[in-house]
Amino acid sequence: xxxxxxxxxxxxxxxxxxxxxxxxxxxxxxxxxxxxxxxxxxxxxxxxxxxxxxxxxxxxxxxxxxxxxxxxxxxxxxxxxxxxxxxxxxxxxxxxxxxxxxxxxxxxxxxxxxxxxxxxxxxxxxxxxxxxxxxxxxxxxxxxxxxxxxxxxxxxxxxxxxxxxxxxxxxxxxxxxxxxxxxxxxxxxxxxx
Length: 193
Prior knowledge:
Elements lengths: L40 H5 L6 H15 L4 H5 L6 H53 L3 H4 L1 H33 L18
Helix pairs in contact: 2-4
């Protein structure tokens, strides 16, 4: 009996069960042109955007207009070449959707691959510690591995120090004598003089 839900997550929690993470991507996304700069919000907001119906029929318009032998006769020689511009729009729409799916897939594979690597690394820590006790020069021969292996423990120690400081500050603030600005106002009455 499988211990996996239909969405790929295990019944014991939300962690997905995936044993088929490729060792490397079968293909890679192409590099963008060197001079590419992402359009900012003001630029994209000024662009015309198709309705959902228009977006879904862009390819069909490209096929219909591009395949017409009488388009120029029907609309005149000065009419824009809609077949070409719609073909380009349809191609980039398809590529954009494919790229979005690829980005989602690549990100999921990255998460799963890192989970596997970190799980393997967690099991390796005892081997690393034993090797280091036996031969301290391991830290010199494997400086990146040493840094990687100690990164979480260093981060944990820094976090503990920060929490301790924050607790001390909070405790100090709670027990400190009120300053003149914080002290309750007292009024002097004629009877108390």
